[in-house]
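User: Hey, my collaborator sent me this sequence without any context and asked if I could get a structure. I don't really work with proteins. Can you help?
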Amino acid sequence: MTIEKLYEVYLQYPSVETDTRKLKTGDIFFALKGPSFNGNSFAQKALEAGAAFAVIDEKEFAVNEKTILVNDALDTLQLLAKYHRQQFSIPFIAITGSNGKTTTKELINAVLSTGYKTYTTEGNLNNHIGVPLTILKIKKDAQLAVIEMGANHRKEIESYCSYTMPTHGIITNAGKAHLEGFGGAEGVKKGKGELYDYLRATNGTAFVMWDYDYLQQMSKNISSLFTYGTRDASVTGETIKSEPYLQVKFTKGITQTINSQLVGDYNLPNILSAAAVGVYFKIPGDKIKVAIEGYAPSNSRSQLIQKDGNTIILDAYNANPSSMKAAIENFARLPAENKILILGGMAELGEESLEEHKKIIELIDKYKWEHVVLTGGDFLKTDHRYLKTKNAIEAKDWFRQLRPNHSTILIKGSRSMQMEKVLDA
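Assistant: No problem. I've predicted the 3D structure and written it out in structure-token form, which is a compact way to encode the shape of the chain:
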């Protein structure tokens, strides 16, 4: 079946699903493969559950006329997304970077939604499956789309751009994340820079954090730039205070002062970028202010929690050397007593992992803490004077025995460490 014909089917049944557990009646089921599963084997189950059609790529799983056989189900999903994308002439804003992608995406969506019908990535569906699924959820009434793109190796962002076809783009930063897949810090810049490469080749617009010299260099020769930062940019702002929440005063572009619900001045670039995108798309400053102030982080991203007489910063959605350093330094600056650090190991750092964990320990050594707990990963392979726990459950047991009160606590670690479990009852 051609993509054009499949698109006709999609227009009749404009809801796509890859997981039979989430399937709704009338969905088109795409039978994708993974390291430990073959979606083709679920095709019959999907149809029995009410799927309108099942797209498969192994003919022995064909059930009836409602199974559509293609060469590769994943390729077909991405090609269908591209065909759908080509039906729109609206701005598509792509967001990538080592840190802050999801927060930036949520803030930008909040701002743009005050003036436009905006569609965006749900949660963190930002990979080779999530990006096409996001595109296929965009309806005819869309005026803007905001697409988050995650990546852990070279050519990944390039592939997303081939079917997202962004007209605008943001690289939040290019720090030390997924070093194993990218082959080091320079590989991260090249990998994230694939978004700039696409915008450069298609005369797109890049929103650039002008404080970062490397982003200035990476964005050279893009025909249209709109800059933000603390100085020398189209939209500028500065931190007034960062405890308990970040307060930002804008000095150019808009005149508002924003009292956010975000913890830490490392969120300043995220707020500045959202304001810059809002200014570019002519959202009034007062609406930008209300939208950003109304955004409350969730899902263990820079959440401020009051529990059992303690103030807890739960930032356990992810961690890499760049974000870990920023979080520790921000936490150290907080004017609070009885500070406790509970940190989980950082994943996907490859050969540099041990050295990067040692650097984090050296940073911790510079400050005074009431307690420090280092959990799992390569923290277990380093020599230090702090408490070691194998996993988040052990850290939770220690935390329950300590029963801290009137303490300020930072909990952070890579997603695989599941450090939020420290707070489980």
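In plain terms: The chain has three domains: 3-71, 88-294, 303-423. You can pass these tokens on to your collaborator as they are.
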